[in-house]
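Q: Given only this backbone (367 positions), what sequence would you predict?
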């Protein structure tokens, strides 16, 4: 396992700016009283006043599973969840694993409207910040409190975990979870940097999709987590100049061939990424690329969902990517130990549960 530097528990001053919870202080050994009024500043910079820790929380909108996964890293977070929107990417098996009482909760239909969310009678609705106009504003017009989270970058994870800790009156747990990510990301970035002048491989990340017999490839914007992970892992994203948009950007094969990177990492959200990679390796056109010739065309791994996304598993995606981009520097990384650590330390699963319930779901180009 990679050695991780020790960081002081209060070493993230930016976290204090998003919490205004009078009874919670960094280093305190007790959580804030659940009956105390809570004031938080959410991801959109809005001040939200709550009468106390919400008893009934609903998670809705696109990317709801990412908030769900973050909420369940807190004791009682799942107990307070009463409604969850189903999404394009399903994590139903994992949800049932971490919450045996999931059947008692309301599973909302995809793209549910404000009235449907209101039917769960929530004290608070948690949404990704990009849902503000489509769902958040109609909910607020109904008098339902809404808190927005980004959960898109490592820095936003630090802030939004503190935000969840404030809402749940569990600031110490928020810091424990934040440190899990912060320490690992810092250790990888330090090890990947290496001596000055070390060569950084040219890396390409592609999302693969297929519809009606037509395949397409896209690259992520430079501001997205996939690009950040490449940089933290010691690679240079070759698509940086083309990736200035607000969403995935189409890349044709001619452009991919022009980049001709040292490494290619393929993501597939709706199909078997291992089958996709096998087909690309067998394609004569792709065989002309140096990444294919050198055996450095990989399928991005995951369990219930791909680890490239800003879900709680992103730190596993970064650890895996580090072992591929900078294998010598990452020689001390035990990826399976990191998988066990995430699910035991953050979700309270036993090692036996990880072995029987999580490991069989792994996919992608794993060791």
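A: Predicted residues:
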């Amino acid at each position: 396992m990679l050695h991780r530097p020790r960081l002081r528990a209060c070493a993230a001053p930016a976290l204090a700016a998003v919490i205004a919870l009078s009874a919670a202080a960094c280093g305190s050994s007790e959580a804030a009283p659940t009956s105390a009024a809570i004031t938080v500043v959410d991801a959109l910079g809005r001040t939200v006043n709550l009468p106390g820790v919400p008893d009934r929380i609903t998670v809705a909108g696109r990317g709801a599973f990412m908030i769900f996964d973050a909420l369940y890293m807190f004791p009682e977070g799942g107990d307070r969840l009463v409604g969850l929107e189903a999404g394009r990417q399903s994590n139903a098996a994992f949800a049932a694993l971490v919450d045996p009482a999931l059947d008692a909760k309301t599973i909302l239909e995809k793209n549910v409207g404000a009235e449907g969310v209101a039917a769960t009678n929530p004290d608070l609705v948690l949404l990704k910040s990009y849902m503000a106009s489509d769902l958040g504003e109609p909910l607020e017009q109904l008098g339902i409190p809404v808190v927005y989270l980004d959960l898109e970058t490592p820095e936003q994870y630090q802030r939004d975990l503190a935000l969840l800790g404030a809402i749940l009156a569990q600031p110490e747990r928020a810091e424990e979870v934040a440190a899990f990510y912060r320490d690992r990301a810092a250790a990888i970035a330090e090890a990947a940097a290496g001596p000055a002048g070390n060569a950084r491989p040219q890396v390409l990340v592609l999302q693969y999709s297929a519809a009606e017999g037509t395949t397409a490839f896209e690259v992520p914007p430079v501001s997205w987590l996939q690009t950040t992970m490449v940089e933290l892992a010691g690679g240079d994203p070759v698509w940086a100049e083309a990736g200035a948009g607000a969403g995935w950007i189409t890349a044709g094969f001619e452009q991919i061939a022009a980049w001709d990177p040292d490494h290619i990492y393929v993501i597939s959200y709706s199909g078997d990424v291992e089958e996709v990679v096998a087909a690309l390796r067998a394609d004569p056109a792709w065989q002309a690329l140096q990444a294919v010739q050198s055996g450095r065309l990989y399928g991005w791994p995951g369990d219930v969902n791909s680890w490239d996304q800003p879900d709680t598993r992103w730190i596993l995606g970064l650890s895996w990517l580090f072992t591929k981009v900078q294998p010598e520097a990452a020689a001390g990384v035990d990826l399976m130990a990191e998988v066990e650590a995430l699910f035991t330390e953050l979700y309270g699963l036993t090692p036996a549960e990880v072995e029987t319930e999580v490991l069989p779901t792994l996919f992608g180009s794993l060791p």
